[in-house]
Amino acid sequence: MPITCDWHIPHIPAGHRAQEDDHDTKATPQTDVMVAEPELAKPPMYAVVMYNDNYTPMEFVVYVLQSEFRHDMDTAVQIMLNIHNSGKGTAGIYPKDIAETKAKKVNSLAHREGYPLLTQIEPHQGE
Q1: Domains of the chain in sequence order
Q2: Which of 3, 8, 23, 50 lies at 20 to 30 Å from 34 by C-alpha?
Q3: Directed axis angle between helix 73-86 and helix 58-67, to 10°?
């Protein structure tokens, strides 16, 4: 009588089954493994820094601080005055990819409007 089997179940000849069963009877030591919780670190933060120039109007800087960085009017004016008086000021602090995107967007907007406003990112040394 020919041996028939289902196509998706492999046929193991009878002689090979006994050898495989012998391997199953050997005791294999089991080791307990302690699984540690993954360590999740906060991403490094970057400051989006705006630099003062003598050509970009203060109103434009305030507009950018409000529209791109979501500062209220009072905070935007304070940051703008800090940029004006100190030569540079922090517009916001974000993870690197977001900071880069915001800096590029502000530089592009300023360029389109004809202003030399420069915005770059720097590693943030805060908490």
Answers
A1: 45-123 (3.30.1390.10)
A2: 23
A3: 130
- Report whether pLDDT(14) > 80: no
Whether the full predicted model's pTM is greater than 0.90, yes or no, is no
Q: Give the integer Cα–Cα distance in Å for 52 and 77.
A: 14
Report CA Rg, the chain. 33
Task: Using CA atoms of 98, 100, 111, 64 in order, give the dihedral in degrees to the nearest 10.
Answer: 40
Backbone angles phi, psi at 92, to 5 degrees: 180, 165
Q: What is the pLDDT of residue 62?
A: 98
Are 117 and 108 in contact by the 8 Å Cβ rule? The answer is no
- The per-residue b/e assignment along 75-103, b for 16 or more CB within 10 angstroms, e otherwise, is ebbebbeebeeeebbbbbebeeebbeebb
Closest CA to 59 of 110, 103, 99: 110
Q: What pLDDT shows up at residue 111?
A: 98
Examine the pLDDT at 21 and tell me if it is beyond 90. no
Tokens of 47: 């400051």
